[in-house]
Amino acid sequence: MGREEAILLLVMSAGAFLIPIISRRLLLPSAVGEILFGMFLGIFFKGLIEQVHILKFLGEFGFIILMYLAGLEVDVENIRKTPKGSLAAYIFVYIVMLVLSSAVVIYLKLPVIYILVLITTAIGLLYPVLKDADLLRTKFGQRLLIIGSIGEVFSLLLITGFAVYYQTGLTLESLSHLFGIYIFFAMAYILLRIFQLYIWWNPEFAKLFIQTGDTAESGIRANFVNMFVFVALASILGLEAIIGAFFGGLLFALVFKERERIKERIASFGYGFLIPIFFIEVGLRFSIKELFIPDVLLKAIFLSVLILCIKLIGSITLILIRVTSYELLLTPIALSMPLTLLVAVATIFLQLQVLTEKQAAIIILSAVISAVIFPWIFKVLVKRIKID
């Protein structure tokens, strides 16, 4: 490792520690501060990121843990308890969004990949926003988490489909590839259900997978084994590693209801260092100068507004289950801050050479703008509205 590489490693490590603290003082999401810090570092270290292999590895590892945690966050039990009529309405929201996004992309003559950009939903930022607004335990907060969780799974399925399409095209090979993926996840689900039945009869054995605080930290080990099994299988199937990580976390969430403690331990490990390194690395790959290019900035703002409009029109379908007017107002704003998945989309499809660096920069800048503006609007509106 050369002198400049060692300095970059030192600065990024210090940034991973300090930036979340500074971001909280500035009332910014930590991930936004880390991406902006990475862009700032790009002024001095732009060409070095590919040379410092340890940082590349740590960034990719952080990305994998981030998506595994996203899978663990999905409250499958809550979704199961949702009345079928409400569940159908939530799914219909995303069908409307998909149709609308496709129409907008065709009308504006945008690249097809922008369908994915416009519809993407994630709960990575929504969860802390609801917590800060004291809505996490309310009926409305739980409804938003269910809608967001369905959207996140829907978005990951679309990312999988788009990734396969851009790798093999619309051919019999791509259809057989998708069918093979479906068979794999179906078999994985069946095996996990059998495993769930086994631990129902042997509850002591289940503790090995969720136990924390013991000398061996068996719960942490079990989760990492589960995560890397799905990451490896995704790679064998020709998918992005993060897709395997997400579904590995999701299937683990299906089996283990009481996973809060283990989730907190993994989150502490990930958010404590590796995930910040990933976001800093994302920023480092894009030039801060692009923030000041009027064309890039205007397109990023336009994309943020377009994302909100798509979510707004899609959310109107919630009238079918007689939601209140304030829920119709707040729901699209809550669904319009998919920071983590928009960054994932930009990163994955830039690597697949589907997006140009400029297009990826616009998407990431749009994600940053959305992550700063929409949570603030959401919190301001919540303070003015009485919510049960």
Based on helices, strands and strand pairing, what is the structural class?
Answer: mainly alpha
Q: Termini, distance in Å?
A: 57 Å
Biggest sheet layout: none
- The name of the CATH architecture is Up-down Bundle
Give the topology string: H per helix, E per strand: HHHHHHHHHHHHHHHHH
Keywords:
388 residues, mainly alpha, Na+/H+ antiporter like fold, 0% strand, globular
Write structural notes for this entry.
With about 400 residues, this protein is mostly helical. Helices cover about 80% and strands about 0% of the residues. The chain has helices spanning about 5-25, 30-45, 55-75, 75-80, 85-110, 115-120, 125-130, 140-170, 170-200, 205-210, 220-235, 240-255, 260-285, 295-315, 325-335, 340-350, 355-385. The longest helix is centred in the middle third of the chain and has 30 residues, at about 140-170. The protein starts with a helix and ends with a helix. The mean pLDDT is about 80.
Q: Brief overview, please?
A:
The protein has 17 helices and no strands. With 388 residues, the chain is mainly alpha-helical.
Present the secondary structure layout.
Blueprint lengths: L2 H23 L4 H16 L7 H21 L2 H6 L2 H25 L5 H6 L6 H7 L6 H30 L3 H30 L1 H8 L7 H19 L4 H15 L4 H25 L9 H22 L9 H10 L4 H13 L5 H28 L4
